[in-house]
Amino acid sequence: MKIAIYHNNNEQTLAVTKQLTTLLKQHHLVIDNDHPDLVITVGGDGTLLGAFHHYEHCVDQISFVGIHTGHLGFYTDWRGYEVATLVDKIATMQPQLVAYPLLKGVITYADGSPNDEFLALNESSLKRLSETLRIDVYISGEFFESFRGDGLCVSTPTGSTAYNKSVGGAVLHPKLETLQMAEVASINNLVYRTLSAPIVIAPDDWIDLRPEVADDYVITVDEFANNNRPLQQIHYEIAKERIHFARYRTHRFWDRVEGAFIGSKEHNNEI
Ligand code: NAD
Questions:
Q1: What is the mean pLDDT of residues 10-30?
Q2: 165 is in an annotated binding site
Q3: Which residues line ligand 1 (CB under 6 A)?
Q4: Using one digit for the tens of pLDDT, what is the confidence trace for 217-251?
Q5: Whole-number Å distance between alpha carbons of 116 and 113
Q6: 14, 63, 174, 175: which could join 246 in a potential S-S bond, CB 3.0 to 4.6 Å?
């Protein structure tokens, strides 16, 4: 098995990465950052998002395991001080592989230039900062509503605890095969009306957002944002590709949610 290490550059991470590299070599595990089977990230959720995008061209062939060196992460199962236990497990056992849905987006531009396609692990949003944004929303090809406000966010189940939650979306269990669309500051009055609630679509549904023509939109895809060209439509569907996590010990999703957002219980290291 070939292993890649993907890390951020803070001091604690660099120390853990050094220890991880030494331990992997001691266990005669091959480090190959170009063609890995397993990607170990060291840092936080942002580091795992970065690793996902770095390896997204081969995401179906690899799995991820995250070590967190900052605060509790959603994509990171291990803490920095547990690196020796993790390497021991990698060397001696087959992990449980869990696969979660990804978001596929296709952007159609108003000037007819070639479409752009992307994958997101957390979410993609369409926003307008200067003026009110108006977007016609279609679900599976049928007109659904005319949105007016700051923007719309379409998230994966694993991304539901990120930006989606901040804008009032529901937290979804990552085993669900779905996407969620949440509103960002919609205008609702006698003239404009939206559902004013997050929606969760069926596995074979898709969402098309058709904004009024303007060139000052921001499209976000996880940690990236761009606003370069007037667009006609963004199409969102569940991607064929999935992200795989290598679990070397069990974890309960709802314990992680409780630990990250409520924190009223005693937790052990497995959370
Ligand atoms: P960042 O460093 O600003 O991270 C933002 C926070 O989001 C961090 O605490 C990170 O741990 C957390 N996070 C990331 N993915 C998560 C997930 N799936 N579940 C729960 N928490 C998660 O930015 P970054 O590290 O580059 O990450 C980009 C992500 O940050 C975006 O995908 C977006 O979801 C999130 N974000 C959230 C807000 C918000 O809540 N208002 C604003 C901007 C970005």
A1: 97
A2: yes
A3: 44-46, 49, 73-74, 122-123, 158-159, 161-163, 166, 222-223
A4: 899 999 999 877 889 999 999 999 999 999 999 88
A5: 9
A6: 63
